[in-house]
Amino acid sequence: QVQLVESGGGLVQAGGSLRLSCVCSGSIFSIEAMGWYRQAPGKQRELVARITSGGSTNYADSVKGRFTISRDNAKNTVALEMNSLKAEDTAVYYCYADLVLFGTHWGQGTQVTVSS
């Protein structure tokens, strides 16, 4: 069984910062990519950032230059450093992991609320 547990969400004022963390545990052979999606009320879930096992990263255009994704392969963790937060960043943020042999797994989500 694979489990992803997120932490670090909360309420912050516009212009502030938050750091999200996620740890993947359980029956893991190897993790190809990890990352974060988000879903705001009434909107589709969208990719925020992704990082491969080799360290290659992808970001949504809306967060480039403000968010930084990082990963610790030895600990099966991924983090998202979010700076210069805007009201439009308010959403539930979901961690995910693409596992070799075992497919994609998701965390339960953590709420990020940015007050303007």
Task: Compile the SSE list and pairings.
Layout lengths: L1 E6 L2 E4 L4 E9 L4 E9 L6 E7 L4 E3 L7 E6 L4 E6 L8 E9 L3 E4 L3 E6 L1
Parallel strand pairs: 2-11
Antiparallel strand pairs: 1-3, 3-8, 4-5, 4-9, 5-6, 7-8, 9-10, 9-11
Q: What would you note in describing this structure?
A:
The protein is an all-beta fold and 116 residues long. The protein has no helices and eleven strands. The protein has strands at residues 2-7, 10-13, 18-26, 31-39, 46-52, 57-59, 67-72, 77-82, 91-99, 103-106, 110-115. The strands form two sheets. Strands 2, 4, 5, 6, 9, 10 and 11 form a seven-stranded mixed β-sheet that branches. A hairpin with a 6-residue loop joins strand 4 (31-39) and strand 5 (46-52). It is globular. The mean pLDDT is 96.
Which word captures the global form? globular
Radius of gyration (CA) equals: 14 Å
Which secondary-structure class do the elements indicate? mainly beta
Unreliable stretches:
none
Quick one: how many beta strands? 11
Largest sheet: 7 strands, mixed
| Helix content class | under 10%
Strand content: over 45%
Note the gap between the termini.
40 Å
Oligomer: single chain
H/E element sequence: EEEEEEEEEEE
Total helical elements:
0
Mean pLDDT: 96
Short synopsis of the structure:
The chain has strands spanning 2-7, 10-13, 18-26, 31-39, 46-52, 57-59, 67-72, 77-82, 91-99, 103-106, 110-115.
Which characteristics define this entry?
116 residues; mainly beta; four-stranded antiparallel sheet
